[in-house]
Design a protein that fits this description.
By secondary structure, this protein is α/β, with parallel strands linked by helices. Helices cover 41% and strands 21% of the residues. The model has no long low-confidence stretch (mean pLDDT 94). Pfam families: Methyltransf_25.
Length: 256
């Protein structure tokens, strides 16, 4: 386990597609929201402008992954999308490793395949087009799920977390990032205002923010932080902490 803090990891640029997200400027826009080819094309820009501390979260996940990686095991990224996290990790993980990306969108994986070519001289990369609940997590020491669980039905979330716990090797780590809601309506109203101001600062017009919010209704279903932790505990994880939280987004680490 490494005890070295790597500031370069938090300062380096992410390998992101340059295409700008303008999907919700004019119609027709995806409603309900789906990860179709139009979304895939601008996904990197969309998520980096929509999730507070996105770069820092990926850097933090890479730091934790380096610390808990066990040689000879797998590091798995569920909902790997265009491969941004795996590419970042691959650059900074000095030990050769098997890096596995899982996503149920083939267009996402095609982008990921291109992005991950640069790290395949060091690491073995496997990309799997499948729903996460149908995958095996055996012989893994690190599993990362960033902003993916929130799109799954509640009963599937619990089943998936249990499957991850069972597949992780002893001492293995889950790094989970999610959009959450507050248990306090007053706080939630304040958080919503702060979040909309964040997106406006990143160049989204009010109409774009409202249209995407409408498209995501009943598609992205957030839980409270307490509910997230409870699901992890019910899945078998006993040691749980939060390295990052801002507005309505949180990252949790859970140890087997």
């Amino acid at each position: 386990m490494s005890d070295q803090f790597d500031p370069e990891l938090f300062q380096t640029k992410l390998y992101l597609s340059p295409e700008k997200d303008q999907l919700f400027e004019t119609g027709p826009w995806p409603k309900p929201f789906v990860f179709n080819e139009d979304v895939v094309r601008v996904f990197d820009d969309m998520i980096s402008r929509s999730v507070p501390l996105y770069r820092e979260v990926l850097a933090c996940a890479a730091h934790w992954a380096r610390d808990y990686y066990q040689p000879g095991t797998r590091i798995i990224d569920i909902g790997c999308s265009t491969g941004t996290f795996l590419e970042l990790l691959g650059r900074f993980l000095k030990q050769p490793a098997t890096l596995v990306g899982i996503d149920n969108s083939q267009p996402m994986l095609e982008k990921a395949r291109q992005k991950l070519e640069r790290i395949q001289q060091i690491h073995q990369v496997e990309l799997i087009c499948e729903t996460a609940e149908n995958c095996s997590f055996e012989n893994s020491s690190v599993v990362v799920i960033n902003y993916t669980l929130q799109f799954l039905p509640l009963q599937v979330r619990q089943k998936l977390l249990r499957s991850i716990y069972e597949g992780l090797n002893p001492g293995g780590l889950l790094f989970l990032s999610e959009k959450v809601k507050s248990a306090c309506p007053q706080f939630q109203e304040t958080i919503n205002r702060h979040y909309e101001a964040f997106k406006a600062h990143n160049g989204y017009a009010k109409t774009e923010i409202e249209r995407k919010k409408e498209a995501l209704e009943n598609v992205l279903v957030p839980l409270t932080e307490a509910q997230q932790i409870s699901m992890l505990q019910e899945s078998g994880f006993s040691h749980i902490d939060s390295p990052i939280k801002l507005h309505n987004f949180i990252s949790l680490v859970a140890l087997k």
